[in-house]
Amino acid sequence: MSNRLAQATSPYLLQHADNPVDWWPWAADAFEEARRRDVPVFLSVGYSACHWCHVMAHESFEDGPTAEFLNSHFVSVKVDREERPDVDAVYMEAVQAATGQGGWPMSVFMTPDGQPFYFGTYYPPEPRHGMPSFRQVLQGVHGAWTTRRDEVDEVAARITRDLAGRELSMESAGTPTEETQALALLQLTRDVDSTSGWFKGDTKFPPSMVIEFLLRHHTRADSVAALEMAEGLCGAMARSSLYDQVGGGFHRYVLTPGPGETLVPHFEKMLYDNALLCRVYAHLWRATGSDLARRVALETADFMVRELRTAEGGFASALDADSDDGMGKHVEGAYYVWTPAQLTEVLGADDAALAAQYFGVTVEGTFEHGSSVLQLPQQEGVFDAGRIASVKARLLAARDGRPAPGRDDKVVAAWNGLAIAALAETGAYFERPDLVEAAVAAADLLVRLHLDEQARLFRTSKDGRAGAHAGVLEDYADVAEGFLALASVTGEGVWLDFAGLLLDHVLTRFTDGSGSLYDTASDAERLIRRPQDPTDNATPSGWTAAAGALLSYAAHTGSEPHRTAAEHALGVVKALGPRVPRFVGWGLAAAEALLDGPREVAVVAPALDDDAAKGLHRTALLGTVPGAVVAFGVEGSDEFPLLADRPLVDGAPAAYVCRNFTCDAPTSDPERLRAALRTALNS
């Protein structure tokens, strides 16, 4: 019999709709029920592509006796962290403060007033490796609730007070300076392993936002060190098992089993990682002309369109790490790994031997059960490129016949904004109009389905139906970022207008008036704390993403309130950048744009289909100066403020390079424009 989750739009919640646990979605009624019964609330937070979430669900939430105990002594609430990042953020902060670590599934026990008093993540069904079993935890919490209630209430109140006292103020921080950026780069050089190219540490997540900073700093400050670090990081990721060497796109992260051993990926694929990395590799190609960067950017874009695009034109959130291994067992990585015998079956003996050498497939295996993850050799040039391309195509075709990983079809506004920016720019750089069209289709979906009459965003949709939850700061900021990129690429000013509507909400509903930003709007549901996190994690924080989008919009329009808000928000970069640059990479990238201007480029055409004008437009888009904005339109157009009073030059198309709407002499020469947009500010 289905529980209350059967009507959810979240695929993660729907995965639990047939559990014997009497789940509630996050709602006031659930807490009222706990109050009526005088029992604690058990909050379980996860997401559909989470391997250990599936494990705990199978071991505990599908177990009849465990479910019976939960139903008798708790009100159980299930939350999709991707649908409710505000709930996840507030209670994850409590988990990390109490235990020193976090992760998913997140397990929190709280009072009917939402005050947490006991925390954890995954619990096994039996005691294991020093961890209590989930049943033991439930029995212990129930015992404390019924016999030591005063103590429980005191702990819950103390934790809630501690969380409430963590508000940030950036009023006196000031804006980032040349010294801020230089110190951030210095700290990053200490964090990177010069031998491998990766940042140090056993768990390696893709540092997309940091690489964007490095590329921008390279151009603005003429820093060879920054470019070398960016190239090293991008090369290490692209050649490792983090990257899907057959189908394109990136997995979530890789682990280092031991010295000299093959990096092992956590095989889930997230839209946000691939959107951010697609854009990073496209920008690396723009800066260097690297063939590797070009290939990875295009393969990642093609992966997103091929495997994540939904019927409505948006992009699904994720692909699971697990899939059927062909023998009825759900196994992590089964879709992606290969044995020598499988290579031979698909390719024949000669090409199988080549593939094994090229991708590092061994008889012993580099993963589990004799299978190997695929990675690239350091010297690709010694292999025949045409033969390798044929091998990859045949392996991809064969892999398509395997049971595919599950797909979370939920469309998240913020992550679609990141995908729109990546696909629009990649399509423009490599003259792939199909990718730009995919970006436009996703943007159309967001406008049609995620925006209400007041231009307020819904966080998610699925199967053409908007979810009930309000957008958070990252949704407004990242969607605005996508729309601004689309405006520059397409020359359609309507996307600038939509970005302005979203950023007006940022100014009125997400700020505290002193330069700080909140993750939820002033009129959003009240939790025990209004979440506020300026640090980047797997994606840009809403705070730093908003700073970047506000700055770009101000460059497009000359709006002083938007620029001032961006400058105030970037105070967090001055405070944190020199000490923990890996946690404010997007803010450091935005600060590079601020220090450069950012530059504004107006390309004026006699007609939109004029070839010379289109050439100037593409040259402008390929400029590497940090955060430059581009407006393209016919003379006299009112679609972009930057085009106002910018005439043609002797009837020919003209490009104007400006700062704060003050422009250099116009040019009709692409080479002169290219030089102006590759030149460091102080050179």
Summarize the topology.
Blueprint: H1 11-14, E1 23-25, H2 28-37, E2 41-46, H3 51-61, H4 64-73, E3 75-80, H5 85-99, E4 106-110, E5 116-120, H6 134-147, H7 149-164, H8 178-191, E6 203-204, H9 208-221, H10 224-239, E7 253-255, E8 264-266, E9 269-270, H11 271-288, H12 291-308, E10 318-319, E11 322-324, E12 330-332, H13 340-347, H14 349-359, H15 385-399, E13 407-408, E14 411-412, H16 413-429, H17 433-450, E15 460-462, E16 465-466, H18 473-490, H19 494-509, H20 542-557, H21 560-569, H22 571-576, H23 585-596, E17 600-605, H24 611-621, E18 629-634, E19 654-659, E20 662-663, H25 670-676
Parallel strand pairs: 1-3, 2-3, 17-18
Antiparallel strand pairs: 2-4, 4-5, 6-7, 7-8, 9-10, 10-13, 11-12, 14-15, 15-16, 17-19, 19-20
In whole angstroms, how far apart are the ends? 70 Å
Bulk shape? globular
Question: Main beta sheet, described?
Answer: 5 strands, mixed
Extended strand count: 20
Q: Quickly count the helices.
A: 25
Which CATH class of the largest domain?
Answer: Mainly Alpha
What is the percentage of strand-forming residues?
5-15%
Q: How many structural domains can be distinguished in the coordinates? A: 4
Helix content: 40-55%
Low-confidence regions: none
CATH architecture of the largest domain: Alpha/alpha barrel
